[in-house]
Amino acid sequence: MATQNKAAATTETTSTAASSHGPQRAGASDPVLRPPVDIHETSDEIVLRADMPGVTRERLDIRIDGNNLLIEGGIGVAPQEAMTALHADVRATTYRRQFVLSKELDSTKIAASLQEGVLTVRLPKRAENKPRRIPVG
Amino acid sequence: MFTRFVIPESALFNEVRRLEQELDELIGGGSSWSSSIRSLPPGTFPAINVGSTDDQVTVYAFAPGIDPKSLDIQMQQNLLSISGRREESPEKNATYYRQERFRGEFHRVLTLPDDVDPDKVEAKYRDGIVEIVVKRRESTKPRQIAVQ
Lengths: 137, 148
Prior knowledge:
CATH architecture of the largest domain in chain B: Sandwich
CATH class of chain A: Mainly Beta
Oligomer: heterodimer
Largest sheet of chain B: 4 strands, antiparallel
Structural class of chain B: alpha+beta
Strand order of the largest sheet of chain B: 1-2-8-7
Number of helices of chain A: 1
Number of strands of chain A: 9
Strand content of chain B: 35-45%
Distance between the termini of chain B: 83 Å
CATH topology of the largest domain in chain B: Immunoglobulin-like
Radius of gyration of chain A: 18 Å
Structural class of chain A: mainly beta
Order of helices and strands of chain B: HHEEEEEEEE
Number of domains of chain A: 1
Number of domains of chain B: 2
């Protein structure tokens, strides 16, 4: 298991970690929603945006474990007890998704913000890995 | 040569599809929603949950990152229509690896139970969820009849 993890981490830039490896967490068998994401890269950073409607700041958990980035969030809307479901597109209350980071990203400077159910995670590149223009003397 | 592969594969695929449909009908609270003439395929933006009590019907539309002013919610008899758009201009000078999030205009129409009162609708937007509460008509609520 551990060697598999390592192998994945040393490969390419951000790629989705398959659910078969990575940390097994309690309640992993519960139904989980896989939030849709946009990922783009500029010369300074990689930016990840994820749709996680219903998640509040308190119920959001972003974790970095070695080279793994784990995003987890719980939907805060609690329907009234007497309510019966007429229709449900969304049938789970937890979002979870994992990514493998690459080495040139500075995991100590990762910043995240949450606005109207959209999570933005900024992964800055290490200074020595940013493209530099070499002056001609 | 390939026919050998095609037949069992499509049979399995059909079987999975059939199971999926049966599950949908089972979990989706009966066939009235999943087979409604206005129903949209699963995965359509925004995802919608509908709950009901004796007093009201509550619709949750999972629409993150939207300007509430751009939302257009209309009620005609028991037909609820939700439309709006989500626009995010792509970053310049950036390489995109994934673009899974919905972009553009959306429109969904839901058939609510017959006894909802189209004049008593309230909507709010919080944490990316639109919550629409429609009251049921007084006359259809269960009530006790006094014996004279």
